[in-house]
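SAMPLE LOG
Freezer: B-3
Tube label: C17
Construct: single chain, 352 aa
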Amino acid sequence: MNNKVENISILFVDDEQKILSSIQRGIIGEKFKGFFANSGKQALEIMEENEISVIVTDMRMPEMDGLQLLKIVKEKYPDTIRMVLSGYAQLTQVIATINKVGVFKFILKPWNLEDDFIPNIREAMEYYILKKESEKLKGMLEKKNELYHNLVMSSDRTVMEMKKGFNSFININKYALDNVKRFLNSNNDMSKEILIKYLNMIEDFYDKYSSIVFESSTSFMLEKLLSDFTINMKDKYENVNIQIYNKSEKVLKGRYKLANLILNILGDIVVNIYESNLSIVVMVNESFVFNKEVQVELFMTLLSKEKKDYRELLILTMFLNELLKEFKGECYVKEMDEGVTIVIKQKFIEVN
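STRUCTURE (predicted):
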């Protein structure tokens, strides 16, 4: 987040130099870059030359007032978050401004720097970052959707298999974007924190999933899948202890790369939540479903000295559950005495 904040630029507009000087002193030590203008005209000149993330403007100014300025900003720079500085006497004008140009927040004069001004500025920055991240994700998904649609239309020999993969991809996309919208509409601080992790997880997933979306079923041993997962986790994280309890020697047929991707993303999720001193115990259970179809159940128990709020884990694994549902599987979280357990169920075909 700090690196993203350093790329934020905030423009403060007020015709009173003492107000601008007060703001300039107040934001010393903040990571964002500040710009200052004493008129609407100067503000627009600055915006012509610089990408401004947030604009904070006074309402009552000569020549061009705050409302006129924000109307132009909304039209020319719709992604810029708009905020207002106002006195009590200007509340009627502020309300009109909110209705006309979509103001994110307004700060009343005189303000308290630590309690009012800085927190509101930080909230606007956070909203801007989340908005940009969601737009980036949406663009990435739309681009990949177009790619897969073109692939489906171009190959007669594999059209049915590709349509199935494409439809699964569309369903997963819809669930991912619906969750982004739900988080953005929430005012809960925890939701904003989780959204950043959620966006990072989705971005990582689609980056890797795009190369295997049309993967064919292959034969593999469950032991190899779990061994590859263990090696990958130990290579990436030093303070994670993994124990595998698997007696299966069956050769299975299914989407090995997808199963491997889900396990590794799940591993990244739990490490990012628990951060350090984490033990992961994986137990395997198998049961026949019908004919040669085998249901494999992985019980991944997380043991940590720190008591964590597992709601965050619950929200992030909900996406993996939606993904697995597209392939006759499921993923859910159980809170048990010894720790939190993630259950993954997936059906495969046993190979003789």
